[in-house]
Amino acid sequence: MSQTLAKLENLLKQRAEARLGGGQERIDKLHAEGRFTARERIALLLDEGSFEEFDMFKTHRCQQFGMEKKVFLGDGVVTGYGTVDGRLVYVYSQDFTVLGGSLSETHAEKICKVMDFAVKNGAPLIGLSDSGGARIQEGIEALAGYSEIFQRNVMASGVIPQISAIFGPCAGGSVYSPALTDFVVMVKQNSYMFLTGPKVVKAVTHEEVTVEELGGAEMHAATSGVADYAAESGPDAIEYIKKLLAYLPANNIENPPVQMVDHAPDHNEPLLNEIIPDNPHEAYDMKQVILHTVDNGDFFEVKEKYAPNIITGFARYNGTSAGIVANQPNYLSGVLDINASVKAARFVRFCDCFNIPVITFVDVPGFLPGVNQEYGGVIRHGAKILYAYAEATIPKITVVTRKAYGGAYCVMSSKHLRGDINYAWPSAEIAVMGGKGAVGVLYYKEAQNTDDPEQYLADKEQEYNESMATPFIAAKRGYIDDIIEPARTRFRIIKALEMLRNKRDSNPMKKHGNIPL
Length: 517
Ligand code: HXC
Hints:
The protein has 517 residues and is of the alpha/beta class. It has 19 helices and 17 strands. Strands 10, 11, 12, 13, 14, 15, 16 and 17 form an eight-stranded mixed β-sheet that branches. The chain binds hexanoyl-coenzyme A (HXC).
């Protein structure tokens, strides 16, 4: 064999070794747990044959704790770029078979390299995490490596979309980097996120807790709000990322992609004319309103299980990507509480970063009163949604379907927060509060001097509802641009989006605002 061919053979041998990561035995163990290898996840994500890898031969430099004998090509992370539905993305995927996917200085350098490429070339970064955190044997070098990644996550925030998916037990630094990204997807039953595992928790706080309870996908999707989606399986998690990417531009100076479908823009939905119950205390499903206005009834929900009293997600109107925020009367009457405010605020800010118009459907009785909410800081957290809408310069279209009471009227993308187009259905009630509460405050004492206080208050309530709980007063002031037929909502939103296509608005020059965190 010629020397050249022998060199080529050596290259192929080394490539094959790198592709095996921590070895076949560990791969088999991963598979037995229903998990995927780092490379399998990349193969699921990217268009076939599109992956170009970097730093396959990179190894760590640690000489302590016998590490000089534990050297694996690639050092526990696969990095590079490829395409999803033909669009460029950068990706890194941690390999649990190599020292638990732990992060060394060199492992971090590989991730930083793709992050730098992603920012310079304006394409999304997708991190597939499966890591026990900072590599303990390296100490400070590993911590320095994480800090370099965190710094890049922050600099990339609002410049390119950053999406994280968690595929195994992730601890320490490997949860903080995803927390800095825009969306986090987890997998039920075999992905976990915690600062420290159950053993440390027991030692420090004496709490007995399972990994699932402490940091499982369902907990993070429903309770902590760290995860945007709890996938049924690894492939389901990857599918979610692909669908999400289809709504997003590649970076903050691009417009979102347009995807035309066969759905007439002027399609009427008569069902919407009757969706609001006659009884103002009766609930209905706001998702039906969304589904009956968007292209092909296709709605991609984000954080579905967290604070379901507000709905957030993406859809298209005549092909144009839009973010949707909607109160959900079906859950806690659609009230705004701490979690709902934070959820919506973060979503609106994401859309604003990436030039995605926001459509807001309003049916909200107000902010949730109570000791728990006040102690939890509903004033500070509720201010976040207000701040998010007020600073957003994207096209903002609002449709009030029923209640828009009090402070909640102000914050839900009202005209006064630079709402561009504000529509109301004839069933809208735009007022400081509902009829019962209002007459209680205004007429309670007066009612006590009548023969039938209850009847007196009922009459006053009817009077109030007829005069105040309507969209016409707001429309007379121009705070509502038009009162529309519910069946025509899709068409009216599409027309408004077309009109706002070239909208330019700006905020005063400043280093950055100070959102009440
Ligand atoms: C070095 C590690 C490691 C780590 C796991 N391994 N985590 N090696 N550094 N951080 C190695 C294990 O020694 C083991 O090697 C292999 O990976 C698989 O790990 P197991 O423990 O056998 O797997 P499992 O039972 O599934 O448990 C996974 C785990 C656990 C929950 C992630 O390994 C764990 O608790 N690791 C430590 C997590 C942690 O506390 N990290 C925080 C680091 S501090 P062998 O060769 O035996 O198979 C940090 C700070 C960053 O990250 C700064 C944040 C702001």
